[in-house]
Amino acid sequence: MRLPFTLLIDPVPADSLQQDFSDTFHEMESTAPALRVGELSTQRGDGIFETLAVVDGHPQEVEPHISRLRNSARICELPVPNAEQWRAAIAYAVSRIPQRGEIALKFVLSRGVEHGPAPTAWLHAAAASDFTAVRANGVRVITLDRGYPRGAAEKAPWLLMGAKTLSYAVNMAAIREAHRRGADDTIFLTTDGFVMEGPTSSVVLRINGEYVTPAPSGAILHGTTQQSMFDYLRAQGSRVEYRDVTLKELRHADAAWLVSSVRLAVSVVALDGEPFPADQALTDALNAYLLGRTA
């Protein structure tokens, strides 16, 4: 059992009745050449991906991640992944990596080689970064204009805003801008002042005792960890809601979190340079719950 671990996958059609996929999996040395020069994932970012956490040998949120991968494929007009094959690939990888600690497992589906016959797919597992400090101390956040009004995704579906694509240059640029301004992370806004999401996270607010996240849409991904957070909050008797959220509501919220699959839940402790109220006790409870999941 070793890290990093890389597995190339020969994708089968979504409607294939195949049940044994072992002959479609090919282990690779992570330092060995694996992609061709004409690969469109590297040339154009033309592909989709998901990243899930594996905690002490338990892959988390497998079904929501596979479902979102399939939805991204439909939006991008890629061959829809065979869910059984991807479940098998994840299980195969988990059986070959360390069974202790936190691991980030990323799986990718690309349009393949230009003018080639088939898509390219692979899975890569690596040790997760140590997020202990940021989970305990929170993040300083700035708001940035995403450059689109609310409703842009529905009016211009070719923007692929509801897909989790490999084209993450804008997202990474937003995080660099946050660092230039002395912050840690970003919350995107529409041009007309509605809260969207972070570059790599979902946004959850507590407003008058209710937990609110921007409604998933063609422009906002339905966060897998946000769904788990809402499951926990409902079980505790709290009210949760999906709806439009304005910048004014964000600024006056009782507390706010950025949530994602590997970093998990982190409190917002500053917003646009001003201190922001945080509920660290709840953050600790959320992360204990999220780390303790076995599925």
UniProtKB/TrEMBL annotation:
PANTHER family: AMINO-ACID AMINOTRANSFERASE, AMINODEOXYCHORISMATE LYASE. It comes from Cryobacterium flavum. GO terms for biological process: carboxylic acid biosynthetic process. GO terms for cellular component: cytosol. Belongs to the class-IV pyridoxal-phosphate-dependent aminotransferase family. GO terms for molecular function: 4-amino-4-deoxychorismate lyase activity. This is 4-amino-4-deoxychorismate lyase. The keyword Transmembrane does not apply. It is an enzyme of class 4 (lyase). InterPro entries: Aminotrans_IV (IPR001544), Aminotransferase-like (IPR036038), BCAT-like_C (IPR043132), BCAT-like_N (IPR043131), Class-IV_PLP-Dep_Aminotrnsfr (IPR050571). Keywords: Lyase.
